[in-house]
């Protein structure tokens, strides 16, 4: 007995060290110069924690554990080596896996403990399974949409919010009943099933442009469900890791919802995709000015300061490497080139930064919205590549616009704005962009990748420097 | 029971505050790697699954637990791998190394 107690203490101390390493790991993420230390700290903490757990005296079946660890590694390695453009769906998928683990453990714990489950334990267990279940299917839906297996368009129907609310209410009512009557174990599968269905219905109505918020929110849910699992298993390490992950997801959700001008409650209750405006109000023929790659190259090379505004369209066209060539060509000519990154550009928080970093663009050239917006009036050319709504001046000055109040990049304040776009179709949210009709705006019609390539070609062949 | 519950709630509260304070300082530049890192750390749930499988109290718990170990381990391995790959790509234009 004392021997067991001794090894238990050792395990707890190992968990204590692992918890400290996890906190340090996140702390080091604050700057790109220390971030990789953060990964190492996390890895050491994880190895310690798993190693310590294997010392647990209750473990008799090592074979199954090893099979699980090996299989998980075999699946995990390819998931760690996906293309950078596939990172959003990979992230959604890993939220699903995390939630799956939590849900399965919760389910197993319930059947091991029933019918003698204390009320508090049963409440946390229900919370764990409901949060885990909805995060699992919700994240699968999000991954499917991002991978374009499922339609990216929001799928909506009448009374959607009511149905969702009733479902969630039903799950909560059943859970409360089960807490009061822990013997009624036949209710448990219903709670689980409702949570799984709820997750699907929660994410199905959400469109691609809202994905950054959804992924952050699912991240938060995954963390909270893991923390609930920590309460069930009385594991302090798990409570800490879950709380860290939960608050991280929450902070990102708040940042994303602010960047889209949604109230936080709006986000919490999953009311996404509501910006679907019956757009397409036939415009009176407004005129735009367009330019050829030669003209664009001439204007860019004559500029002193250029700000590139990338959006999801750049990722879709896989244009980031061509954009790097443009950056190199202009920098060589002494042009100051920076990148303006809107918080919700792309499909997940920080998506654009990763793509541009992958293309070897130095990170000190990547500017946050707050840091760059004041510089647009002194910018000669703002080059928009595959971004739309985040540059729409209607958000600033048209109170009737559905995106009114959303913080935008002030591209229209630059001396010249150039927009690379396939055609004049409105953006994802279906909102017309007055930027395109300004006198200072030049539309560059074409595929982002080939258009940037043509500009680079012109700059290279331009001769005099 | 009561005191362990209260202890656990205290730990949760403190960890949540630490999380807020630490993560608020993370630059938006690194939000994607941050998310994949927290994902990997969150997969520490694997320890719960390992104990569940290892104790082998019932067939159901062993089967569900094994799937849970697989799911969480793939997050640990994949999450750390991709976070490190991403961070390696972030380079400064001003070389800091002597």
In short:
With 465 residues, chain A is of the alpha/beta class. Chain A has helices at 2-28, 35-54, 62-79, 87-113, 119-146, 160-180, 188-203, 211-233, 236-259, 264-268, 293-302, 312-316, 320-332, 351-358, 369-373, 394-397, 448-461; strands at 289-290, 305-310, 336-341, 366-368, 381-385, 416-421, 441-445.
Essential attributes:
heterodimer, A: 465 residues, Rossmann fold, 2 domains, 17 helices, B: 98 residues, mainly alpha, 4 helices, 0% strand, flat
Topology (SSEs and partners):
The complex is a heterodimer of chains A (465) and B (98).
Chain A: H1 2-28, H2 35-54, H3 62-79, H4 87-113, H5 119-146, H6 160-180, H7 188-203, H8 211-233, H9 236-259, H10 264-268, E1 289-290, H11 293-302, E2 305-310, H12 312-316, H13 320-332, E3 336-341, H14 351-358, E4 366-368, H15 369-373, E5 381-385, H16 394-397, E6 416-421, E7 441-445, H17 448-461
Parallel strand pairs in A: 1-7, 2-3, 2-5, 3-4, 5-6, 6-7
Chain B: H1 2-24, H2 31-42, H3 46-55, H4 59-89
Helix pairs in contact in B: 2-4, 3-4
General description of the model:
The complex is a heterodimer of chains A (465) and B (98). By secondary structure, chain A is of the alpha/beta class. In chain A, strand 5, helix 16 and strand 6 form a beta-alpha-beta unit. In chain A, helix 4 runs parallel beside helix 8, helix 5 runs antiparallel to helix 6 and helix 5 runs parallel beside helix 7. Chain B is mostly helical and 98 residues long. Chain B is flat. The N and C termini of chain B lie far apart (57 Å). Chains A and B meet through helix 1, helix 2, helix 3, helix 4 and helix 8 of A and helix 1, helix 2, helix 3 and helix 4 of B.
| Assembly category | heterodimer
Order of helices and strands of chain B: HHHH
Cα shape of chain A:
elongated
The tally of helices of chain A reads 17
Strand share of the residues of chain B? under 5%
Strand order of the largest sheet of chain A: 1-7-6-5-2-3-4
Low-confidence stretches of chain A: 272-283
């Amino acid at each position: 007995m004392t021997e067991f107690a001794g090894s238990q203490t050792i395990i707890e101390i190992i968990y204590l060290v692992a918890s400290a390493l996890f906190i340090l790991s996140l702390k080091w993420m604050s700057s790109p110069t220390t971030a990789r230390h953060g990964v190492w700290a996390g890895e050491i903490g994880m190895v310690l924690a798993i190693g310590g757990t294997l010392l647990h005296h209750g473990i008799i079946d090592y074979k199954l554990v090893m099979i699980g660890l090996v299989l998980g590694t075999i699946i995990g390695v390819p998931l760690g080596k996906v293309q950078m453009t596939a990172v959003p769906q990979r992230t959604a998928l890993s939220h699903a896996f995390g939630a799956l683990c939590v849900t399965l453990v919760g389910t197993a714990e319930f059947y091991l403990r029933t019918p003698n489950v204390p009320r508090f334990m049963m409440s946390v267990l229900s919370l764990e399974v409901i949060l885990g279940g909805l995060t699992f299917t919700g994240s699968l839906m999000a991954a499917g949409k991002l991978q374009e297996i499922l339609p990216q368009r929001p799928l909506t129907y009448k009374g959607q919010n009511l149905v969702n609310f009733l479902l969630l209410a039903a799950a909560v009512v059943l859970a409360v009943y089960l807490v009061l009557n822990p013997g009624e174990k036949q209710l448990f599968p219903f709670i689980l099933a409702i949570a799984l269905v709820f997750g699907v219905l929660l994410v199905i109505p959400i469109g691609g442009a809202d994905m950054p918020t959804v992924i952050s929110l699912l991240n938060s849910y995954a963390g909270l469900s893991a923390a609930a699992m920590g309460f069930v298993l009385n594991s302090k390490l798990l409570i800490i890791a879950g709380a860290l992950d939960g608050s991280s997801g929450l902070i990102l959700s708040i940042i994303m919802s602010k960047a889209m001008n949604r109230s936080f409650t709006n986000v919490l209750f999953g009311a996404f995709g509501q910006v679907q405006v019956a757009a397409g109000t036939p415009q009176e023929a407004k005129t735009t000015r367009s330019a050829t790659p030669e003209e664009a190259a001439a204007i860019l090379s004559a500029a002193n300061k250029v700000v590139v505004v990338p959006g999801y369209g750049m990722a879709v066209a896989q244009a980031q490497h061509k954009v790097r060539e443009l950056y190199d060509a202009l920098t060589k000519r002494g042009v100051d080139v920076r990148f303006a990154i809107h918080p919700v550009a792309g499909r997940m928080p920080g998506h654009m930064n990763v793509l541009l970093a992958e293309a070897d663009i130095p990170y000190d050239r990547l500017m946050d919205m707050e840091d760059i917006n004041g510089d647009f009036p002194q910018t000669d050319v703002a080059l928009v590549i595959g971004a739309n709504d985040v540059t729409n001046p209607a958000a600033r000055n048209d109170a009737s616009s559905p995106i009114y109040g959303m913080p935008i990049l002030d591209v229209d304040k630059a001396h010249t704005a150039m927009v690379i776009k396939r055609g004049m179709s409105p953006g994802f949210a279906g909102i017309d962009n007055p930027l395109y009709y300004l006198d200072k705006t030049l539309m560059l019609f074409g595929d982002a990748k080939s258009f940037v390539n043509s500009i680079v070609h012109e700059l290279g062949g331009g001769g005099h420097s | 029971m009561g005191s362990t519950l209260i202890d656990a709630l205290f730990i949760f509260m403190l960890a949540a505050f630490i999380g807020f304070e630490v993560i608020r300082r993370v630059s938006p530049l690194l939000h994607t790697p941050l998310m994949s890192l927290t994902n990997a750390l969150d997969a520490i749930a694997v320890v719960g699954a390992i104990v569940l499988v290892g104790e082998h109290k019932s067939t159901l718990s062993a089967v569900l637990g094994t799937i849970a170990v697989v799911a969480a381990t793939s997050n640990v391995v994949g999450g750390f791998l991709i976070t490190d790959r991403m961070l390696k790509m972030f380079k400064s234009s001003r070389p800091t190394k002597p």
